[in-house]
Amino acid sequence: MQRRAPLLLTRSALAYLALIAAILALLPGMTGLGAAAVSLAVILGWRDMRLVPRVVFLVAGFALAFALGRDPGMIAAAAENMSRLAGLVLAVMLLSSVLGRTSDLQKISTSLFGGRPRVRYLSLAFGTAMVSIPLNFGSVAVVGSVVGERIRSNGDSPSTRNATRAVLRGFGVSPTFSPLSISVVLTLTLLPGLGSLQLLMLTIPFSIVLLFSGLVWCEPEPESEIEPVKVEVSGGLAPWFRFCALILAICAGVFLLSHQFQLSYAYAVTLSCMGAVIGARLLAWCRRTNPPLVSMANVSNELAIVGGSAFIGAVISAAVLGQISGDLNVPNWLWPVLAAAVPWAFFIAGLGGVNPIVIGTLAGGILGAVWPENGLVGLGFAMVTGWGITAFGTPFAANALIMERLTGYKAVDASLRWSLSLALSGLTVASALAAGLTLVLV
C-alpha cells in the first residue's frame, strides 16, 4: 500500500489539475492542459478501472488516431469538449464529497423511510431527486445505504423492493430536471439557441408526472409492513431548509453566470459548484476545523467515461457534419420523426451498455447543427427525457450498479424488470411530446 501512495497522490493531483484547468478555461491553453491531465489520470489508474471505462477510453484513442489522419483540427474542439465536461464532473463530485461529510444528509435520508406505502414511495423518490441535484450519484449512495440497512436488519420484502424502485427512479429523473445535471448541461451546450428556462419549464413537469406514474408499477405491501413516520423534534426541518437553501444558491449562481455574464452553461455550473465547495472550506476554517483535502485518486472510471465519451462524440459529430451539405433539403415531416426517435435511441443504446454521454453528444452535435432553430426545444426535450429514462430503466447505468452493491438486488431486476413498463410508457409519452413540439414549432 505504501508503494501505491505516490501513485495515488499523483492521480489525485492530475484530477485537481484538470479541475483547475476547467476553472481557468478562459485562459489560452487551459483546455489542452485539462484534456492532457484527464488522459494521464486515466492512464495511471488503468489497472484499477472497470471494463466499460477501459473500452470507452480505448475507443477515444482510436478516435484520436482517426482525427489525426482525417483532420487534426477536430482534436482542438474535441479536447475542449473533454476538458469542459470532465471539469464539470469533477466539480460536482468534489461538492458531493464535501456535502457527504455533513450530518444533515443522514437525517434527511432517514426521514424519508416511513409512513404508508404510497407516501414512503413518493418521499423516497422525490427526496432522492432533490438530493441528486448537488450530489449526483452520491444521492444513490446516501439514500440507498438506508434501504440496504433495512434489508440487512429486516430482510427482503415488498417495502424494500419498492424503496429500491423509488431511489432508482428518483435519481433517474435527475437528468431531466436538474439544472446541474450533465444531461441538461450537455444539451444546452450543444444546442446554444435553446434557453435553459425554456427547456426546464417543460422537463420539470414531465419529471413530476413520471415519478407519480411510478405508483402504478409498485408492489402491494401488507398492512403489517406499514411504518409510522418518525419525526425528530430536535432535528426538525432545519436539515431540509439548509439543504434546499444550498441547492437554490447553487442554481441561482448558475443562472446568474450563464445569463447575466453570458458564460457557457457547463462553465457556469462548474464555477457555481466550486463556489459552494470553497464556501464550505472557509466556513470550516472559521469554525477552527480543518477537514482533509478530498482525494481524487479514484476518479479514473468517471474521467474515462465522461472524458472519453465527450471526445468520441465530438470527433464523430465533426466527421459526420463534414459530409453534410450546408443546404439541406429536408421535408418538414422528418424533424418530428427524428425527435420522436431520439429518446428510444438513448434507451436502446443504454441496454447495450453505451453511455448516454455518447448518444447525447452525437444527437446534439449532429442534429443540433442542422435542426431548425425555432424547434430546438423539441430536440432538447427528447434528449434529456431519453437520458433520464435510460438512467433508471437500464441495468448498465451506474446508479443501478450502486444499488446492486448496497441492496443485493440484481441491477437487471431493479432497473429493467421492475421498471420496464414505466420506462416504455415514459418513452412513448416523451417521443409523442417531442414530436408534437417539433411539429408545432418547425
Automatic annotation (TrEMBL):
Transmembrane segments annotated in the record for this chain: 51-69, 81-101, 121-147, 167-191, 197-218, 239-258, 264-283, 303-324, 344-369, 376-398, 418-441
Statement: the UniProt record of this protein carries the keyword Transmembrane: yes
Sorted UniProt keywords: Membrane, Transmembrane, Transmembrane helix
Protein name per Swiss-Prot or TrEMBL: Citrate transporter
Annotated source species: Marinobacter psychrophilus
Phylogenetic classification of the source organism: Bacteria, Pseudomonadati, Pseudomonadota, Gammaproteobacteria, Pseudomonadales
